[in-house]
Specification:
It is a single chain. By secondary structure, the protein is α+β, with helices and mostly antiparallel strands. It has 2 domains: 5-158, 2-Layer Sandwich (Alpha-Beta Plaits); 173-334, Alpha-Beta Plaits (2-Layer Sandwich). It is built from 8 helices and 15 strands. Strand 6 (138-147) and strand 7 (152-158) form a beta hairpin. The chain starts with a strand and ends with a strand.
């Protein structure tokens, strides 16, 4: 798979009082889009980012409002970035408080990394949060490039710098396979759904997860994102993986549904972005073969065929509203 990911973590200090909702992903995404559009959009008129003449030359459209007339799934396709919002529920911040959020760029969108940092810095100057009060302003103290699979991190920007250093930490499929090798004997996996996972199956919202549902939505997410970010397709056997996923058993389900509204300035109304949060654990079928491994001669048990794609999903998110922070999860593995 040609997909690459650059995970950025922004550490910020509040300058003026700030009021934010409990789920902050859509607020951060909207403020970042607004700041980028104000400073960099090539068309400040009413034209939408889906207009071909606008988006082909506009970094804002390329990053946050991608479209493709050739897509079989509609003009608006997967954006090559995600937001990792603050996970704390607090809604009030005072001057001197700190908070952090993440932005992940995929594939060719990595070339727009300076725009992401400049846009975030501009977002802090404009202010975010409740517009009925003075929007809260903040300063970016530093930006790190991180690898959530290995916890490696290094600084690429700090307050006062005039340049941005290119990240040396890149998530590639080779790196994912290296981590997968250490986890291939795992018999159980627990998903910690950090932000609402909004999955739609056969036109209906999914409020009860199975492993096959997760894999179906994840493989679709990886296919759409890889096509948008690289122009290629991921190299997995979609149907074989889904067939094997049917044998993975649910062990423990402690998920719950949360309703989260998100205000759309474009639509002029609130839209729902709620989903499932909490933990859910699955166990692999020990009789499951691993003909999807790197070599036909390799044999494997249980969860091995799924490990690389589950790891990718922890970076790409799963389900709808990934650019607003939805569907972000972490994994715990048990042998």
């Amino acid at each position: 798979m040609d997909l690459k990911a650059y995970v950025l973590r922004f550490r910020c200090e509040v300058e003026t009082e700030m009021s934010l909702p409990p789920f902050k992903g859509s607020t951060i995404r909207g403020a970042l889009f607004g700041a980028l559009r104000q400073d960099f959009c090539i068309d400040q008129g009413p034209a939408r980012c889906t207009a071909m003449g606008v988006r082909q030359a506009c970094p804002v459209c390329c990053l946050l409002a991608t479209a493709d007339e050739t897509s079989s799934r509609g003009v608006e396709v997967a954006r090559p970035c995600t937001i990792e919002p603050p996970l704390e529920d607090r809604t009030s911040y005072r001057a001197g408080d700190e908070f952090s959020f993440g932005v992940t760029l995929f594939g060719e969108a990595a070339d727009l990394l300076p725009y992401a940092i400049i846009g975030a810095r501009r977002m802090g100057e404009i202010g975010i949060g409740n517009r009925q009060r003075a929007p809260g302003k903040f300063t970016i103290r530093n930006v790190q490039a991180i690898d959530p699979l290995s916890d490696d991190a290094h600084e690429i920007y700090k307050d006062g710098d005039s340049t941005v250093r290119r990240p040396r930490t890149t998530i590639t499929h080779d790196a994912v396979l290296t981590v997968s090798e250490r986890l291939k004997s795992s018999s159980q996996v627990t998903f910690e759904l950090l932000t609402p996972a909004r999955l739609v199956t056969e036109g209906a919202l999914t409020k009860s997860l199975t492993f096959s549902i997760i894999m179906r939505r994840l493989l679709r997410r990886l296919t759409d994102l890889t096509r948008t970010a690289t122009g290629s397709h991921p190299g997995f056997d979609h149907e074989a993986l889904l067939q094997q996923a049917e044998a993975v058993r649910l062990i423990d389900d402690r998920t719950r549904w949360v309703d989260v509204p998100s205000y759309s300035a474009r639509q002029g109304r609130f839209t729902p972005i709620g989903g499932l949060v909490g933990e859910i654990t699955f166990e692999g079928d020990p009789s499951t073969g691993s003909h999807l491994s790197k070599s036909p001669s390799e044999t494997g048990q249980g969860l091995e065929p799924f490990v690389p794609w589950l790891l990718w999903g922890s970076v790409t998110h799963i389900g709808k509203d990934a650019t607003k922070g939805g569907g972000w999860y972490k994994l715990r593995w048990q042998s």
